[in-house]
Amino acid sequence: MEEIQVTNRGTGAGGAQTNVNGLTYELQNDLSSKYEIVNEDASGIKTVRFIGHPNLYTTGRKSQFHPIIRQRSDEYNAITLLHGTKQPDQWFVRQDTKQCFVIEIKHQNGSGSVSEKLQTATNKLRRIKKMYPDFQILYIYGLSPWFRDNCIAEIEDLGEDNIPYFWGDDINFMDNIVNFIMNQ
Question: pTM for the whole thing?
């Protein structure tokens, strides 16, 4: 009997092109063009102000999100991270109102597991709230147009769970996200 060889592309088997497409989409929709840097420390943590707005926010690279929480929350060290929640695409913390905005930019143009990520928003939100108990946590999605027609139930659930989402093909996409943040 001939043995069938199965090739597994490995953990996170979306493949290199999945990562290229997603990262390209994230970079195209980065909010850095919508704010000015007021201060930046040696580690790259920035204090920023969205253009035309007076409020100050802390932000940084993806990898700096949880270290920032660690600095401000003793409870953080007792909480285990969920898989896939280690580095949000973009994040902003407003200290004076104790608000934390976590932004996930998702791109998809064909069938695949990215659509399942929309189903995890409430779990991610609950876990971040445990880590950052003194803050209001707002989890926001920026979605490529593919999701509109192919993830109808997931989009419906986001609405029911009050998790805002914005469409990447909207000419005002980034402004809509900034306006949402400003109006909280």
Answer: 0.81
Q: Which value, in Å, is the radius of gyration of the alpha carbons in the chain? A: 18
**Beta bridge mates, 99:** 94, 136
Question: By C-alpha distance, which of 14, 2, 101 is closest to 58?
Answer: 101
Query: Which tokens belong to 76?
Result: 């953080």
- What three-state secondary structure class fits 167? strand
Give the model confidence (pLDDT) of 77-111 as tens digits: 677 777 766 688 999 999 899 999 999 999 888 77
Range of the domain at 152: 15-182
What lies within 8 Å, CB to CB, of 169 at 6+ separation is: 144, 145
Tokens of 184: 């909280």
Domain CATH code at residue 64: 3.40.91.10
